[in-house]
Amino acid sequence: MSNANIQVLKNMFQCFRAGDSPGFLELLTDDVYWDHRGPEGPSFNQLYEGRDAVARFLADLSGAEEALVVEDREYFSSGDRVVCLGFMRFRAIATNDEWESDFAMAVTVRDGKLSHWRIFFDTGIEAKAITG
Predict the structure, then answer these.
(1) H helices of 19-65, where?
(2) Whole-model pTM?
(3) How far apart are CA 101 and CA 103, in angstroms?
(4) Is the CB of residue 83 less than 8 Å from the CB of residue 76?
(5) What phi, psi does 65 have (nearest 5°)?
(6) Which of 33, 37, 62, 126 is most buried as measured by Cβ atoms within 10 A of its Cβ?
């Protein structure tokens, strides 16, 4: 099951890079727990619960910044948990500032869909780039 769970997360990255929000959202459980909390600044730095809330997150994120590079580099899994290590670079739309960070993403997969998502990266540089 671990390889299948890794593939779910790989599919999420493919949908994100392709701008396929409907495909992205289909990979989530209806009651998904989506944790993108960070420092004050971007309005999307918060906890989202449910697929509709994640749709708002994606809309807010794309309105605030453009993904330039999102690389999922390494995967580790144990049971229903998958961790991905990677790198990302974004450009803040309001300020035109670019920022980059390594990241660790931890997810739980339930019945072939993501039910819990949490990302760890330098949220401070993201907030600074967006708010100027």
Answers:
(1) 21-26, 51-64
(2) 0.91
(3) 6
(4) yes
(5) -155, 155
(6) 126
